Q: What sequence folds into this?
């Protein structure tokens, strides 16, 4: 498998991505707890270099329902990087969602037992050694005839609970360890594009919604991101507990946006945001986003290539700025119409849509920047040998 490491040429872009909300708090705050984690088996690892990312419950404000994002194997974005899963946490009066991220260390993920190496603290499913990922066959489904870099170490699971959130009524009482707090200060990357697409596919599938599958999703795991129709998909064996549908299913009062002016409760994250990567803010309107920063000038040592790269960067910058202006103007017009209507329910719906729209635009622009930096990486640096060492 070809893993493209980021080099010093891309450091400026990496810093921009590090401040992203894409791997920190999303800002959704839901009054209803997510369902228990379903019971399912892990599909076989497709090839060397793929790392398991467990399934989780996400929330779709358009249909006011949780939906299951299938667990899947994802190629690591960099040699040495591991995945910290997303999680839900009680924020005093709402459940807050924190998105997963890639980094050299596994951070805090709420103490949630996601199985397959993610048993609440750290990751027991494998490790990096001399540029190769070695799999713990005791907790991973690996074909040793195809993948030889394996070891077997038994793991003592601390808890068998299927609870999918931290804190609050019935939630887990876990706090970050010093190691997890240190991980929060390391360099991070947000979910890679294939993970975002994988999540969007789950969101668009009614069968993945909790109200439809009653906590037992038809597709609990896939062999690769987006492979929801692959013959290797895995169905949940059983729900992780009793599914209790909310009484106000279909209503619009279930979620509120985070107060971006600093009114958020200090206990919105169990570790008081100590483990919030990047310490970023959730924005409810495009006009509230920080100014779009121009990319640093490339310095690969090849003036001709640097000029080409600079033109590509400027073109992307102009496209993103144009999109930001367009969406900001649209949101402003809608807000002005609402002030005349005096309809609280409609106002809340529009505010929710604006926040989601803003978050998606911000994440999309960051992904575009990362894709560009990968294409611009010097070939001799970004193209390691595909042939694994003996």
A:
């Amino acid at each position: 498998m070809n893993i493209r490491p980021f080099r010093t040429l891309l450091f400026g872009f990496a810093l921009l991505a590090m401040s992203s909300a894409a791997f920190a708090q999303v800002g959704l705050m839901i009054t209803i707890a997510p369902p228990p984690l379903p019971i399912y088996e892990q599909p076989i690892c497709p090839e060397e270099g793929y790392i398991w990312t467990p399934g989780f419950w996400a929330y779709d404000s358009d249909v006011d329902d949780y939906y299951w994002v299938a667990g899947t194997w994802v190629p690591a974005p960099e040699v040495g990087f591991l995945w910290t899963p997303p999680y839900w946490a009680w924020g005093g009066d709402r459940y807050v969602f924190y998105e997963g991220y890639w980094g050299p260390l596994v951070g805090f993920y709420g103490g949630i037992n996601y199985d397959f190496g993610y048993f609440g603290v750290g990751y027991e499913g494998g490790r990096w050694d001399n540029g190769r990922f070695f799999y713990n066959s005791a907790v991973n489904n690996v074909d040793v005839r195809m993948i030889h870099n394996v070891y077997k170490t038994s793991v003592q699971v601390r808890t068998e609970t299927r609870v999918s959130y931290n804190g609050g009524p019935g939630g887990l009482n876990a706090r970050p360890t010093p190691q997890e707090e240190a991980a929060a200060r390391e360099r991070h990357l947000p979910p890679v594009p294939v993970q975002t697409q994988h999540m969007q596919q789950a969101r668009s599938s009614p069968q993945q919604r909790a109200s439809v599958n009653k906590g037992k999703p038809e597709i609990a795991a896939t062999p690769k991101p987006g492979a929801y129709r692959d013959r290797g998909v895995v169905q949940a064996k059983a729900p992780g507990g009793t599914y209790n549908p909310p009484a106000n299913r279909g209503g619009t009062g279930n979620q509120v946006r985070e107060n971006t002016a600093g009114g958020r409760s200090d206990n919105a994250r169990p570790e008081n945001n100590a483990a919030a990567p990047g310490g970023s803010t959730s924005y409810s309107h495009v006009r509230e986003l920080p100014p779009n920063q121009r990319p640093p000038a490339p310095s690969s040592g090849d003036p001709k290539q640097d000029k080409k790269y600079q033109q590509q960067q400027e073109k992307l910058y102009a496209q993103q700025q144009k999109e930001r202006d367009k969406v900001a103007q649209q949101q402003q017009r809608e807000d002005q119409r609402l002030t005349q209507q005096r309809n609280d329910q409609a106002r809340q719906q529009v505010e929710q849509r604006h926040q989601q729209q803003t978050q998606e635009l911000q994440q999309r622009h960051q992904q575009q920047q990362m894709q560009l930096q990968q294409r611009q990486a010097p070939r001799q640096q970004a193209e390691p040998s595909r042939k694994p060492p003996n």
About this structure: Confidence is low (pLDDT under 50) at residues 1-27, 255-280, 378-390. The first strand starts at residue 25 and ends at 30.
